[in-house]
Structure formats: C-alpha cells, structure tokens
Amino acid sequence: MTTINKILNVDDYYFDVFMSISEALTGFSVNELQSTGLAETYYTYILGNLEAATFAEFLTVSKNVIENSYTPDQLRNAITAEIIADSGMNDMAGKIITLWYLGTWEGNYINDLSYQEGLVWNVMHAHPPGAKQPGYKSWNVQPVNSNS
Questions:
Q1: What is the C-alpha to C-alpha distance for residues 120 and 127, in angstroms, rounded to an integer?
Q2: Which of 29, 35, 103, 105 could be bridged to 114 by S-S, CB 3.0 to 4.6 A?
Q3: Structure pTM?
Q4: Span of 48-52, 86-90, 105-109, 110-114 with lowest mean pLDDT
C-alpha cells in the first residue's frame, strides 16, 4: 500500500520511471516528451483511470528493466522480454505509446492539448488540422520529402 500511496505524487521517483519508460517506448527523449506540456497530465490521468496497483506493477517492472539495462540494446531486449512478452504489461505499454502519439486513452482524447501535442504530428512532419497551423507563408517552404 505504501507504493500505491507514494505513486500519487508527480514529484516522486515513479514519475521519473514513467518518463524514462515513455522515452524508451516512444523513441522521443524525456525533454521532447516534457515539451508537450502533458507529462504530469498524462501521469495523473493514468492514475485516475486505472487501478493504482496495476500502474504500480507496470512502473515497478519498468524500473527494474531500466536499472538493469546498461546499453540501448540491453534496454530493447529487456523491454521485449519483460514488458512486450507479458500480455498485461504489453497492454499497458501500448496504452502509454498511444497516449503519447495520439493523445488518447482508450479512444478518448485527454484534453484539447493532447490532440495538438500528439507525437504523431512530429513523426509525419505535419500539424494537427484545425488546431496548430504551420505559420505565415508556410506554403512558400517546400514540404519535407519522406524519401530524403
């Protein structure tokens, strides 16, 4: 019960674990994830919409994976073996990836900002339609070529 109570504070170690595993799962750095302005929102949203013990278990497994991996290859292998291979952990990892990339949790947007700051827009070199325009005279700049 102590872990579950401790996890409710975004300033604690488990928030850092959440950010580190998010970095490993999304391929975006912690700084890039923080720059969305949604890290704390996502962390507390998950806590409010999931059994705290389930999230605590995921973060404990993630913590062990991160602490016992010394190279990027070891981290990838540990994530595959300890998170992806376990159906419950895999489901949680998928939800976190979807949360960061699309701004949704189980098909629902967290808030307006989660749509605008979804990582998918960066990957596509695009902007969220109707929410964040590319800027004045953007038509004058040649689009990014995905083949380059």
A1: 9
A2: 103
A3: 0.83
A4: 48-52
Burial of 42 (0-12, 13-18, 19+ CB in 10 A): buried
Alpha helices by DSSP H, listed for 1-69, are: 2-6, 13-26, 30-34, 39-49, 52-67
Residue range(s) defining the domain that contains residue 111: 2-140
Count of domains forming the chain: 1
Q: What is the pLDDT of residues 46-103, one digit of tens each?
A: 988 988 889 999 999 999 999 999 999 999 999 999 999 999 999 999 999 999 999 9
99 close to 42: Cβ distance less than 8 angstroms: yes
**68: in domain:** yes
Backbone angles phi, psi at 104, to 5 degrees: -120, 155
Residues 138 and 70: beta-carbon distance below 8 Å = no
In angstroms, the CA 35 to CA 12 distance is: 19
